Amino acid sequence: MSSISKHRKEKKKGWKDIPIGGAITEQKTSLKNKTGSWRAIRPVLNPKKCTQCMMCVYYCPENSIHIDNDNPERGGIDLDYCKGCGLCANVCPVNAITMEEESVFGNKKGKNDKEK
Question: In which residue ranges of the chain is pLDDT below 50?
Fold first, then answer.
C-alpha cells in the first residue's frame, strides 16, 4: 500500500478532537498593567479637525481613547495604557490625530492627551 492511499484511509481529526489551545478568559488584561511607560510616540489630537467619527475609539486595541460620559463626544487618551501603536492616527479620516515623539513632551506620565 502506498503512503498516499494509507493517508487517505486515516480518519482526520475534527474540531472536537483537537485539543484546546490558549484561551482568553479575561478581557482587558492591560488595565491591570500600565503599559504607557514604554511608548516611544504618542497620539496628539487636534480638536479643531476632529469630526467625532469615533473611528479612533473603535480601532484602539487598548481601549485608551475614551468617550466623555457627559456628552457623546470623544474624550481624552489615557496615556497610562496607550502603547503608541498609531492605529488611531492611521484610521482618522481627517488626520485629526498625529503621532509625535515622546521626547518632545519630556514627561511620559499624564492621564489625558495634550490637545493643540
Answer: 108-116
